[in-house]
Design a protein that fits this description.
Distance between the termini of chain A: 16 Å
CATH class of chain A: Mainly Alpha
Family (chain B): Belongs to the MreC family.
CATH architecture of the largest domain in chain B: Beta Barrel
Low-confidence stretches of chain A: none
Oligomer: heterodimer
Order of helices and strands of chain B: HHHHHEEEEEEEEEEEEEEH
Distance between the termini of chain B: 134 Å
Number of domains of chain B: 2
CATH topology of chain A: Arp2/3 complex 21 kDa subunit ARPC3
Structural class of chain A: mainly alpha
Keywords (chain B): Cell shape, Membrane, Transmembrane, Transmembrane helix
GO cellular component, one term (chain B): plasma membrane
Number of domains of chain A: 1
Mean pLDDT of chain A: 82
Largest sheet of chain A: none
Order of helices and strands of chain A: HHHHHHH
CATH topology of the largest domain in chain B: Thrombin, subunit H
Number of helices of chain B: 6
InterPro entries (chain B): Cell/Rod_1, Cell/Rod_MreC_2, MreC, MreC_beta-barrel_core
Number of strands of chain B: 14
Protein name (chain B): Cell shape-determining protein MreC
Mean pLDDT of chain B: 78
CATH superfamily of the largest domain in chain B: Rod shape-determining protein MreC, domain 1
Strand order of the largest sheet of chain B: 3-4-7-6-5-14
C-alpha cells in the first residue's frame, strides 16, 4: 500500500477506468460470446483492491459500483446485490488462501507476487460466486436452469480469463521480496 | 453502550453487508414491480449522457455493417432513380393495344387483326398479302437519295419490291433484303415515283421528290383543267403495283400553274415525318409478278412506278 491520498486517488481512477470500459465498450453486443457469455470486466476493480482494505469500505465500494451499473442498465439492484455479496465473501476467500506465513504488508492481488495458482483459485472462486448470484438474481428465479447454468459457466470463464489477462499484462512484475 | 458499540464494530462487516444487500434486493424488487419507478434508473440526465457516449463508442464497431447497409440502400435508390438499360429499349414492332375500345373496333371490322395504315385498313395476317411489322434501325433524310434500314429480312418473309408503309402513310419500297435486314428506298429518293390519286375527286398523278425538302414532295401530271383544293388528301392509286390502293401519302399544301407546263405543280406535304419514323410495315399490293407478266406481254411499260 502506497499510502494516503495518492492510493485513494489511484484506486478511484482505476474504478472509473474499469467502469467506463465496461459501460462504454465491453457491455455492448459485440462483446457477448454466443449470446451466453458476458465479460463483467468491472469485477477487476473490486477483486484487485488492496488486500487490507477495510471491510466496510470494500462493501461500500461494491455497492457503489453495483448501483452505478444498475442505474445505467436499468436493472434495479442486480449488479449491486451481486457485487456486495462478492465484496463480503472476498475477505473469506483471502483468508482461505492465506500463504503459510500470512500476507505481507506489501502483498497485493497480483499474479506476479502471489503466483498463478493462487490467482487462478482466487479468481475462479470469487468470479463464479458472483456470477451465480448475478445471473440468478437477474432471472429472478431458477426457471430455465439449463440456459442459466450455461450463462454462468461461459461468463465465468470469459470474465475470469479476461481478468487473468489483465493481471498478466498490466500489473507490475515485482517479485515477492521475501 | 460500550458493549453495543463493540458489538457493532465487531460485526460491522456482516451488518453493512446485510444492509447493503437488503437495499439492493429492495431496489431490485421495486424495479421489477414498478417499472421505471425506482429512484436509480437511467432516465436522468447524467446517465443519459453516459448512455450517449456508450452509443458513440459502440457505433464504431458497427461501422462495417452500417456501411454495407448504406451501400445496399444506395444501390436500391440508384436503381429507382435510373431505369435499367432495357427500359429505354423499344419493342421491335408496334403492339396492338389490349384495351377494350381497340378490341371492340377490331371485332367490328370483321377481320379482328387489321391495322389502319395511312387511312387504309390492312389485314394483319392474310396469307396472300403478308403484313410484316418492322422497326427502322437507321435512316437518312438529308441526301438526294435516301434509304432506310429495317430489322426484318428474308427470314421474316421480306421480298424485294414490297411496299413499306407506316401508320401515317407511305414510306418507301424494299430495295435489297438480306436474311435479317432490309434496305428500303424511301419516298425521298430522286428516282422514286409513286402513282397517286387525289382522294376527293380521283384525279391521278405521280409523286416525285425533288431532292431538297424532306417534308414535301411534288405531285406531277395533274392536268391544268382539274380543280385543286388546298388540304386535299393524296393517296396511292390503284395503278400502283407496290402499295395497296388508298394508302395516304400526304396533303396538298400549295399549287401553281407554271406557264410552260401542261400540268399543275402541286406541293404535297408528306404525312410521314421521316425524321421520327420508328415503326413500319411491309405490305404487298397483289400478286405482282402475274400483273407484270401480263403487262410486259401486252407491251406496256408501267408508267407510274418507282424504279430506284
Amino acid at each position: 500500500m502506497r499510502g494516503g491520498v495518492l492510493e485513494i486517488l489511484w484506486q478511484a481512477g482505476r474504478g472509473i477506468l474499469y467502469l467506463a470500459l465496461y459501460v462504454l465498450l465491453i457491455s455492448g453486443t459485440d462483446f457477448v460470446l454466443f449470446n451466453l457469455g458476458w465479460c463483467l470486466i468491472y469485477l477487476g476493480f473490486l477483486l484487485f483492491l488492496p488486500i487490507n482494505t477495510p471491510i466496510v469500505v470494500q462493501l461500500l465500494l461494491g455497492f457503489l459500483t453495483g448501483i452505478t451499473l444498475d442505474t445505467v442498465f436499468d436493472t434495479g439492484g442486480v449488479h449491486a446485490a451481486a457485487a456486495v455479496l462478492l465484496m463480503y465473501l472476498r475477505p473469506w476467500v483471502l483468508r482461505l488462501l492465506t500463504p503459510r506465513d500470512g500476507y505481507d504488508s506489501q502483498d497485493s492481488v497480483n499474479i506476479h507476487q502471489m503466483g498463478w495458482q493462487w490467482m487462478v483459485v482466487y479468481l475462479a472462486m470469487l468470479v463464479s460466486i458472483h456470477h451465480v448470484a448475478f445471473f440468478l438474481l437477474e432471472l429472478g428465479s431458477i426457471r430455465v436452469p439449463g440456459i442459466t447454468l450455461a450463462k454462468i459457466v461461459v461468463s465465468t470463464l470469459y470474465t475470469g480469463l479476461t481478468l487473468l489477462i489483465i493481471q498478466l499484462v498490466f500489473f507490475p512484475t515485482r517479485r515477492r521480496s521475501r | 453502550m460500550n458493549n453495543l458499540l463493540n458489538f457493532l464494530f465487531r460485526y460491522r462487516g456482516i451488518l453493512v453487508f446485510a444492509v447493503l444487500e437488503v437495499l439492493s434486493l429492495y431496489l431490485l424488487v421495486r424495479n421489477s414491480s414498478y417499472q421505471r419507478a425506482a429512484f436509480f434508473n437511467s432516465s436522468n440526465a447524467y446517465v443519459g449522457q453516459v448512455l450517449d457516449w456508450r452509443n458513440q463508442v459502440q457505433d464504431y464497431f458497427r461501422l462495417i455493417d452500417v456501411n454495407r447497409e448504406l451501400m445496399h440502400e444506395n444501390a436500391r435508390l440508384r436503381q429507382q432513380l435510373y431505369p435499367p438499360d432495357l427500359s429505354r429499349r423499344q419493342a421491335d414492332s408496334l403492339p396492338v393495344s389490349k384495351d377494350s375500345v381497340t378490341q371492340a373496333r377490331l371485332a367490328l371490322l370483321g377481320r379482328p387483326d387489321s391495322l389502319l395504315l395511312g387511312l387504309r385498313q390492312l389485314a394483319a395476317h392474310d396469307p396472300d398479302y403478308p403484313l410484316i411489322p418492322a422497326r427502322v434501325v437507321s435512316s437518312t433524310q438529308r441526301r438526294v437519295d435516301n434509304y432506310l434500314t429495317l430489322n426484318v429480312g428474308t427470314a421474316n418473309g421480306v421480298k424485294p419490291g414490297m411496299g413499306v408503309v407506316s401508320a401515317e402513310g407511305v414510306v418507301g419500297r424494299v430495295k435489297v433484303a438480306s436474311e435479317h435486314y432490309t434496305t428500303i428506298t424511301s419516298v425521298l429518293h430522286s428516282k422514286s415515283t409513286i402513282s397517286a390519286r387525289i382522294q376527293r375527286d380521283g384525279t391521278i398523278g405521280t409523286i416525285r421528290w425533288l431532292g431538297d425538302d424532306p417534308t414535301h414532295v411534288l405531285l406531277d401530271n395533274v392536268p391544268r383543267q382539274n380543280k385543286l383544293v388546298r388540304g386535299d388528301t393524296v393517296v396511292t392509286s390503284g395503278y400502283n403495283a407496290v402499295f395497296p390502293e388508298g394508302v395516304r401519302i400526304g396533303t396538298i399544301e400549295s399549287f401553281v400553274k407554271e406557264p410552260d407546263k401542261n400540268f399543275w405543280t402541286v406541293q404535297v406535304r408528306l404525312a410521314v415525318d421521316f425524321s421520327r419514323l420508328t415503326y413500319v410495315y411491309l405490305v404487298t399490293s397483289r400478286p405482282k409478278a402475274e400483273r407484270d407478266t401480263v403487262e410486259v406481254r401486252a407491251g406496256i411499260k408501267p408508267e407510274a412506278e418507282e424504279r430506284p
